[in-house]
Amino acid sequence: MKCPYCSSENDRVLDSRPAQDGTAIRRRRECIACGNRWTTYEYIERTPLMVIKRDGRREPYDRQKLLNGILLACRKRPVSRNRIEELVNKVEAKLSEDSQTEVSSKELGELVLERLLEIDPVAYVRFASVYRQFNSPEQFVEELKHLKKGGESEEDREKGEEN
Ligand SMILES: [Zn+2]
How far is the CA of 24 from the centre of ligand 1 (A)? Predict the structure, then answer.
C-alpha cells in the first residue's frame, strides 16, 4: 500500500488483529522508506441489494420497511414477532444465496408470500392484496378461492385453533 507520507509503495504489516467485534481486521503498517506508521481497516465488501419498484425506480433494500409491511398484515393474528423476523431472515438468506444484487418488489413480495402462507392464511391474503395491488374486488375473491382450494377446510381450521 502506498505510504501516505512519502508515497513509497514498500510497506510492511506490523500487526494484524480483529476489530469491531470481528467484522473488520485492523492492520498497523510501517513504511520501509520513511519509517512512518499508519492504520488500515479491512471490511467485507457488501453490495447493497437494490429493490426495483413497480415504476422502475430503484431503492436500497430496507429490512425495516419489509418487516413493517408483514407486521401490518399480521395485525391481531396469532403470529409472533419472532416468526416474522425469522421469515425475513429466510427471505434475506434466499436472496444472498442467489447472490442477487437486484430484486423486483414483486419478486420480493412473492418470496414473502410463499412463506407467509405456511404461517397464517389471513396475513397472506392481506399481504398479497398490498403487494399484488389487486385492481378489483373480484381479483381479491379469486385469491381467496385459490387459497381455499389449496388449504384446509374451514372445519379443520376451527379444530386447529382449538388445539
Ligand atoms: Zn513513507
Answer: 25
